[in-house]
């Protein structure tokens, strides 16, 4: 069910997918309802690495009992997930044009009506508990499936995240993998100004997890890390992915105001030009 890497590196093999996912995101943000632009753009390489290099999933059999389960705990990044599912073959890309419109199943947060979406998410702090449940169920059923959860860094201010982290470690769920989209920003400002998280890697290690860090826009690094779990037998794995909010768009990259946007015709043209030029991605601004 997984997509094998060719002799090319992950970056070379999957860069085209990431580019098209970004194009879909800005197009959806130009619709009448707008969209969560910044936090979706920071997710692109994480989702690309997972769906094209790591996850054992099959668009033709989305309910396969042996599949890997993916949960976007930061559900406000739904447009990035929809774009990725379309690129991977779960959705007709033409459906993305209806995002947020009356009658569309593509809502601001993911719902199960969308093929490839396991559960509704976006009430922040719940995704890790759900992922732990899927991982435990797979183990009890003797299934090979793994559970992957992507969280936002501001989300880590929810106490339920840490309850789930303790529970997963206590159950030795080494088929559970969590990724933190560490773009350093939340809707109300910098995470370290709102409610400091650092030393974040050490916190997760203290809770019993195996932790690694990676540049969150480097497909080679992401596929290498996420494709080699569990890093320690008997421990769940946590990847801190260092990203930039609004990555790919230099006029909003690293800015709090990129959180939600309704792009005008002029702004959409500007965004597409930036993406075509390949500017504004990678690293912290």
From TrEMBL:
Pfam families given in the database record: Transketolase_N (PF00456)
InterPro entries registered for this protein in UniProt: THDP-binding (IPR029061), Transketolase_N (IPR005474)
Domain annotation Transketolase N-terminal: ranges: 28-275
Stretches of the chain forming a coiled coil according to its record: none
GO molecular function: magnesium ion binding
PANTHER family in alphabetical order: TRANSKETOLASE, TRANSKETOLASE N-TERMINAL SECTION-RELATED
Protein name stated in the entry: Transketolase
Biological source species: Pseudosporangium ferrugineum
Organism phylogeny: Bacteria, Bacillati, Actinomycetota, Actinomycetes, Micromonosporales
């Amino acid at each position: 069910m997984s997509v094998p890497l060719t002799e090319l590196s992950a970056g070379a093999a999957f860069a085209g997918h990431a580019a098209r996912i970004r194009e879909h995101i800005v197009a959806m943000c130009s619709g009448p309802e707008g969209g969560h632009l910044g936090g979706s753009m920071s997710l692109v390489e994480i989702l690309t690495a997972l769906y094209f290099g790591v996850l054992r999933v099959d668009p033709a059999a989305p309910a396969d009992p042996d599949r890997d389960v993916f949960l976007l705990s930061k559900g406000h990044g739904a447009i990035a997930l929809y774009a990725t599912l379309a690129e991977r073959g779960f959705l007709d890309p033409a459906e993305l044009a209806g995002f947020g419109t009356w009658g569309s199943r593509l809502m601001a947060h993911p719902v199960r009506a969308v093929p490839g979406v396991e559960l509704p998410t976006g009430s922040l702090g719940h995704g890790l508990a759900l992922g732990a449940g899927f991982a435990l169920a797979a183990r009890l059923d003797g299934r090979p499936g793994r559970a992957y959860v992507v969280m936002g860094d501001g989300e880590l201010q929810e106490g339920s995240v840490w309850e789930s982290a303790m529970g997963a470690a206590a159950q030795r769920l080494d088929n559970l993998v969590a990724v933190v989209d560490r773009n350093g920003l939340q809707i109300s400002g910098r995470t370290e100004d709102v409610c400091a998280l650092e030393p974040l890697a050490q916190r997760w290690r203290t809770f019993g997890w195996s932790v690694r860090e990676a540049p969150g826009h480097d497909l080679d690094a992401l596929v290498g890390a996420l494709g080699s779990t569990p890093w320690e037998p008997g421990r769940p794995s946590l990847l801190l992915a260092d990203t930039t909010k609004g990555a790919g768009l230099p006029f909003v990259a690293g800015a709090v105001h990129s959180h939600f946007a309704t792009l005008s015709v002029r702004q959409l043209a500007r965004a597409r030009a930036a993406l075509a030029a390949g500017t504004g991605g990678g690293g912290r601004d």
